[in-house]
Amino acid sequence: MRPMTINELYDVLCSKKFQDLEHGVLNYNFYIFQYNPADEYEIRRQIKDFKEKLIRPINFVDILDLNIFDEFCTYLSKKQFGPNPSYLDYIKNKEKSNPDGITKLLCAEALRPDFFKYIHKRIIDHVNIDDEMNRPYVFLYGMGDMFPYLRTNIFMANYEEYNKPNRYKIIIFYPGHKVESNFRLFDSIDDQHNYRATFFINDYLPSE
């Protein structure tokens, strides 16, 4: 089946059926939109455009868009490390003298439960806003920037403990494509496939 285009993705997001959180809940709430890595900045522009269009009165959909790499940096900047008020600043100061060691530290930090709790709080704070808006979607992008610290399938597996499938759907923007049973990050690096992410948004066109 051919990959879904960005315009088809927008049609899906506008679908009242897809906005219904009961639709697909039993089959996991992760959806992956695959795209050409060369289109990264265009995709990010489209994400902002979708957010602006969907919040308008015709839709009343308020999207939380999370750049996972930016969120990781914010998480590290708020984390105290010994006498250092910002772990991120500490890492930046140490990076030039020991880049390999810093990569190992960042990989370890990206797997800590506190980071997933931080992401969970960001999402829950958003969906718990009490107003007239509908909040069925969380956009997650920046997965390429997070490599090699955190792979997409590892994020899905580690976030499962905090995930609330009946509260939101997570749309992951993936810079690469699925080849048979595996994903290829940047269309060049083999990435493992999480078997529970069975519904891929680029394979799905709901009818109203």
Report on the structure:
The protein is an alpha/beta fold and 208 residues long. It has one domain (6-203). It has nine helices and six strands, in the order H-H-E-H-E-H-H-H-H-E-H-H-E-E-E. The chain has helices spanning 6-14, 16-19, 40-54, 68-77, 87-95, 99-110, 113-127, 143-146, 152-159, and strands at residues 30-35, 64-67, 137-141, 169-179, 182-185, 189-191. Strands 1, 2, 3, 4, 5 and 6 form a six-stranded mixed beta sheet that branches. It is globular and about 50 Å long. 24% of the residues are buried. The model has no long low-confidence stretch (mean pLDDT 86).
Low-confidence stretches: none
Count of all domains: 1
Beta strands, count? 6
For the record, give the distance between the C-alpha atoms at the N and C termini, rounded to a whole number.
Answer: 21 Å
Q: What fraction strand? A: 15-25%
Radius of gyration: 18 Å
Most strands sheet = 6 strands, mixed
Structural class: alpha/beta
Number of helices: 9
Globally, the shape reads: globular
Please, what is the average pLDDT?
86
**Helical percent range?**
40-55%
The string of secondary-structure elements, in order, is HHEHEHHHHEHHEEE
